[in-house]
Amino acid sequence: MDVSGLNEKNLVEKAKTDSSAFGELYELHYARIFGYVLRRTANLYQAQDVTSEVFFKALKGLKSFNWNGTPFSAWLYRIASHEIVNNCRHNSRYSYEISLNGLESIAPVENVLQHERDVEESLDLQSSFLKLPAKYQEIIALRYFEDMEISQIAAITGKSENTVKSLIFRGISCLKELNEKSM
């Protein structure tokens, strides 16, 4: 569900004094923020922890949030980007693992084998993506996983549109290089 800028602004202002309004903001933005964090961390449990922390920090910092024309979601993505970096830096308890146990009993063997190949290719790409410097991960995730426009990414990251375009180009070049090396 998308909220028009004016309605979202009113909801944000209301949420500063009414926790049920923050609940509405949470419902509106949780899925996209969680998806962004999950794609950046490649770990379900870590994504859940980080997303919880994002909304906790948003709730805690909401009174100091100043509406400056940038969507509230941009503020949430900015918090998420910082939390991903902090969490990965300070927390090594998570490991990325895919289990296919039990699939054989519910799908034909050909489907399982195709699924395993798809998962392997996806893991190779994810592995290459996670080796990118954080500045490229953030920009590429916002552009291609979150399907955002250059102007939206610029608002979230605080960078100019030309810098965002340059980071996308360099990030994709690095990703191709890393993916070719892993083959």
UniProtKB/TrEMBL annotation:
InterPro entries named among the record's database cross-references: RNA_pol_sigma-70-like, RNA_pol_sigma-70_dom, RNA_pol_sigma70_r2, RNA_pol_sigma70_r4_t2, RNA_pol_sigma_r2, RNA_pol_sigma_r3/r4-like, WH-like_DNA-bd_sf
Q: Which GO terms describe its biological process?
A: DNA-templated transcription initiation
Annotated RNA polymerase sigma factor 70 region 4 type domain ranges read 125-173
Residues of the RNA polymerase sigma-70 region domain: 25-93
Keywords assigned by UniProt, alphabetized: DNA-binding, Sigma factor, Transcription, Transcription regulation
- GO molecular function annotation: DNA binding; sigma factor activity
- Similarity remark: Belongs to the sigma-70 factor family. ECF subfamily.
Designated name of the protein = RNA polymerase sigma factor SigW, putative
Look up and give the organism this protein is from: Dehalococcoides mccartyi (strain ATCC BAA-2266 / KCTC 15142 / 195) (Dehalococcoides ethenogenes (strain 195))
